[in-house]
## 1
Amino acid sequence: MSVRNLLLILAIAFVISFMMAQTASIFAGQHVWYNLSANGSDVPCEKCHADVADEMNVLTGPHTGETGYGQFKCEYCHRFPPVQHRNTTFESYTYASVNSSDVIPGKESHAASTVPCMYCHSGDRYGVRHSNCATCDCWSCHHADTPQPHEGRYTNNEDCRRCHANAHTGDVYYIPPAGGFNLTTNASDTGKNASHISFVMSAIENETMEDANEACIACHTRMSVEIWFNVTTEAKITVNNSYTQSYSYWDVEEITPSNYTNYKEVKGE
Amino acid sequence: MRQTIALAFIFVGVASLILFTSTDVFTLFARQHTFVNISFAGNDISCVDCHHRIQNELNNSAFHKNLSCEDCHRFTGTGITFASGDEASATPGKEAHAAYTPRCLDCHGGSGTWIDGKFAPPAPAFNETGYGSDVSAHKPLVKQSLDYNLSFGENEACLACHTNYSIKFGFKRPEYFDFYFSVSGSWDVSSITYGDTNTTPVNKSESGAKHEFKAINQIKCEDCHLDVWNAANHPESNAYGSTKASHVCWKWGGSFKGRSYSNDDPMHNVSKVGMTPGYENITDYCLSSCHKPKINSSATIPPVFENTVHAAYRLSCYHCHNDTSTYTNAFWNKPKNGWDTPGFHGDQTVEHKHYPGIYGLDDNILSEPLFLHAETCISCKRGMGVPSKHGSCGSCHRDYEHPSVSEDFQAYTEPNNTIYMDSTEI
């Protein structure tokens, strides 16, 4: 590069530098602070989790408005409030929260946590709690409960109805327990005949997701699942023609599964 | 070199641009927030989504392919409470959540069950208390299946016969038994001892599919009991060249000592399998000729046939061939194409056991365990044809009519059923 060209570049750079009035931040908007002083979560989850927000719009089902009162808010599940009727092996978390009068630092979690489905679905109450009361003023009665529902965190009807009411039937109901796996607090929930119980128990052992969520989500959502089955195609049966002095009988000595084969099923292709 | 550096700069630049402009965080497991609506009546979660293979098996099945998964696996007749619900109400599961593995007898027990407009007929005998009579041949397998965990309840036994699930059987028996045959006075059998246990393998090799249910006419006795069939059907000659040596294939004819044996189509003639008139196939032979014969409802029949059994009766020769003389025209003889009377040597006169002078043989054998009852018959018939001045019958009737020599015998069990007299195969 010639000396002349170098001087020309330096001159232009000086001119630009001299003319600029502002410094551009690398990350725009980083000094635009959200006001956290209102009740509830004031930080929009969708800002970062737009894909999840989109998913919530794909189907109208549980949590996504099939009752006619709209989708669940993110915080219902991911900042889950204390639920009274639940298996207490699922602990409650303290999340960071702020409102106009109080500041609570988070303990087990700051903004959000991934939630075991069974946290809300492990109680022993089910069915309709109040018939034809979906439009009732919930808090006007339940504020007097001891303890207050969800420790008094939800006091407006909209929040109550999204989880507990059905606009089509007009009824108010308990959150249905996922019974049949011996995981709820219902004593008659034995799960002794459940086909998928080993799947659920293995999911609990697996740390990919919380608790049994791998199993819950595999069936109850449209998530793609690749399942490898290892099944027996043959049994070995050994029978012995046993006998006494005057009697003979066929005694089954062994029935053992064998000749296992693997195959793949893909759900959601 | 300069080109490589330029590409590296471009790559870093583009990556930085993407990173800088990206605002979304991608969820690890996509679609986990797409919840299936389960507020409709019935099961709203597709079983087939995860169990295509089972559906394919059922598509090849003779039975049950017109049933839904829920008909069997959410069958409510057992009192099991499954998780269910619709818009108006929800019921949590108790014993099961989405599905259970049914016992076949859940539907096929008792008086049968109506499911979705289709009738599941009861499984005869096995639908009775205690699985029915002890003369039901497969009762031990059904009953003892309860002790094993391959499937639920008695299902192992059901699957073994009624599906394309493969089975490797090992049938254990004493390899042989020894007995002393005394002919002084009346015949007498004594000193019965058993050889070591012998295991005969039989492979019922199928596709392995437990949801491929067989049509009834696809269930073949010989698939599981090839050893017994081999004992019944010895196409080869015995050690002395007799082609009539198979234990149940005695083709009689002509006359002997003034008695006419004119029936050329004895009921147990294995050479009549696949013939017309005769037995359609081996299974037809096993059942029609012995283990589940067609019975004349107007005739007096052996008491054992008054029981209901499932597939087959557990029998010995003596159940029909005994000294009861009233079983006239009790059974349908397929090769003869007419009603038949169980007789000795196939004649139509009433002579059901050995003749009175040698009743001791029968009486001694009848006091032994059941499996010896038939083994003795099988073995002696297998031994037919020993060269003798008296012809093929001379192996037993060596003194023309009454044996005069006491001997040691060794009779082998299925599938060989050879017999040795003083260590010489006869």
## 2
Amino acid sequence: MVPTWHYLALAAALFTVGVIGVLTRRNIIIIFMSLELILNAVNINLIAFARHWGSVDGHIFAIFIITVAAAEAAVGLGILIAFFRNRDTVNADEIDLLKW
Amino acid sequence: MTFYEVTFYVLALVALLSAILVITCRNPVHSAIFLVLTLLSVALIFLQLQAEFMAAVQIIVYIGGIMVLFLFVIMLVNLDVAVRQAPYNRQRWIAGFAALVLLAEFALFIYRGRDWAKLPPAAAEAVQPNTELIGRALFQSYILPFEVASLLLLVAMVGAVLMAKQR
Amino acid sequence: MPASFLDAVWLVPALPLLGAFLMLLIGSRLSNKIISWLCCGTIFGSFLIALGIFRDLLGLPATDRIYEKIIFTWFPAIPYITDGGNAANFQIEWGYLVDPLSSVMILVVTGVGFLIHVYSIGYMAHEGGYYRYFGYLNLFMFMMLTLVLSNNLLTMFVGWEGVGLCSYLLIGFWFLKKSASDAGKKAFIVNRVGDAGFLLGIFLTITTFGTLSFTGINAALASDTFAMGAPAITAITMFLFIGATGKSAQIPLYVWLPDAMEGPTPVSALIHAATMVTAGVYMVARMNGLYQLAPTTMAVVAAVGALTALFAASMALVQNDIKKILAYSTISQLGYMFLACGMGAFAAGIFHVSTHAYFKALLFLGSGAVIHALSGEQDIRKMGGLWSKLPVTGKTFVIGALAIAGIFPLAGFFSKDEVLWRTFANDVGHGDLFTKILWGVAMFTALLTAFYMFRLVFVTFFGVSRVPRETAHHVHEAPRSMTVPLMILAVLSVVGGWVGIPAALGGGNRFEHFLAPVFASHVELGAAEHAHSLEIGLMVFSVGVAVFAIWLAYYFYIRHTEIPEQIVYRLPGVHRLLYNKYYVDEIYDAVFVEGPVLGKGLATALGRFDLKVIDETGVDGTAWLTRSISRLSIWWDTWIVDGAVNSLGWLVWALNWPARVLQTGMVQRYALWMATGIVLFLLYYVQRYILGS
């Protein structure tokens, strides 16, 4: 059996990659994708611990995370399309209308 | 090392590499493809963790729904110009440093707790079919979050349509 | 009939004041008839009350004839230490003092004033500004009565200044004529010089006596704290006399009176003959207690009086304007009054004041009738032969001339003779030679007076008529409103002296006895009571001198009219000197007006003082100060007040700065902050659970 902490290590690494992607890339779509990476890392954590404890709660939580991720991706991309129509850009650092 | 364990390490490597490629590619389409690969790897890891329902859900919803959506949006947004611009922003070095510090902290926590996170010997054999268990739990203990989630999806659907439709 | 006229004494000045006030307010809307009735009525009312006061006063015992009525307190009492170290209470009240002296004065002022008011109705009938004239005239009466009735030096000074003001207003009545307005100014300014002396006298009185009320001063004198010839008393009396020279036209401040003839003739009669110019004499008489203690001043007063009498009479000899002759005559007669006061014969001086009022007013009004008849001609060289044409005027005029010449038994004889006798006989310590010289000067002046007066009479009314043909057609006697006062004054000129028939002639000299309590000497005057025979002898001598002078005038101007021209031909320098009034006006002009030191120089210096110090430093300086303070205020408001407010705003802005800096609007930056926060958060747990254990 693979020790549970191996799964945690993988999840941590995927999480970090996702964070780097969110903080570093200019293209909003890439940022969204990195966000999905983060969520997946969390899912891995949950399923690993579900197996560790032998309960199904982890699965349920992971289902809900996927559900919310889907909803959020839909709305977020909808907003992106609306924004792109006005500004003709998908770069995150060009969208600073809410600065002080 | 059994086949069971090797699959994990192989899939882990694939997932990690393709994740890194997701965030490094200039072309968003490429990133999307690599993300699909990552998600697939994760689904297979789920399978290796005896969570077959989750693996199915991952493939159907995530790859089949969300990634398709991503690709549609990439097509709608004109990215010819974006490909030629700088891929990284001004805060990349600090962000990278912070993320790595974060990783170091994670590593520290995980490594220090690795004894605690070993598998208990008893639960190694009991493998039950996931779907029934998940179904039971979802419609009995977690009925309320289930209904709320459906409401959430409704709202998200309406919102997405509203945001994206032509004026 | 009120219980006591004495209580109603305040009405005497109040009625004319009411008249003046009404003229000021609504005079321009009233008809001449109403104005005449109103303004003459007020004076007549005052005259009746003055008669009542006189009757009441006679009812009191001789030694107790003093009545004081206080109207209101002007300056409340202030404790004061005099120069002599006495404690006094300095207080000024507006009060009226009724005693024999003031009762005589108000009778003369209101009586003669009333007659002149009536005369003015006819004289000013065709003039513009009728209401203004009568308003000023009533105002003058108020001021003069205030002067005479005052119970203290300060309110007397109010009246003093007031009559000066009215004199200015009335001399310059026809102010559109430059010579008239100039004359008004000259009168006021020259008067002002005298008033400066008067004020100094008042100030010294305050420091010496601590009070200005006459009863208070007399009480202080009665307590014998002041020696004869005390320097303080001498100074006070000298300063007051300087004021009197200005008001009563003595040397050196007489120069305004001849010019004052620019005013209407009734004004000349009232103000510059009968009343205002006698204010100086009245003041000296009122302060007789002080003057008797200052023999030096008395000598000065007598000398100035005598000298002025001679001086003015000499100038009257050669004048050709009716009114100018009478003006110089007034100056000369005023000199007699001061001579009398200087010799300690205050009652004689006041006696001459009253008789002079009668005949001088008569002469002036008569000359006014002549001028009126000749349609404005005033030069006697263009008159003559008017006796038949102006019978009433002529006869009354001759009566007035006889009175002033001092012919027995007219009024002028008794008063002038009293003055001459007292000058000769009184012993006030001036020295025998001095007094005899003064008597000689006065006697010679009497000769001149009779001579120039009858020169005027003969040239104006008798002889060949030199009236131009056009005016000769219009020569007519004056209306009744003018001739009746003339007749009344003529009667007074005859009988007015009979109240003062001296003991030498068998009379009781009631006038002098009536005034005696006022002039009771605090120091032994040693009034000589020479033998009556000497007095009668001198009387005869003076009458003889007067008759001789009249005959001389007859000889020069009726019989041999070529003689005056020959005298002028023989003594051109003398004539020129006299005709040009000894060039006094020119000298004053050169020294005080145009002169580099006192005149233009002083005026320029004062003007520059006014410009530089008062205007620039004072007014502009105050403006500059105000602006500077306002600049300071602006600075304070901008930097400190606004600064406090603004700094609060800045504080909020500054406190906000970190939050503002973080609000870049860039989502990834926010995400970085979140990541950093999580890292630091976890760092804490790392430190606590990993590194520690």
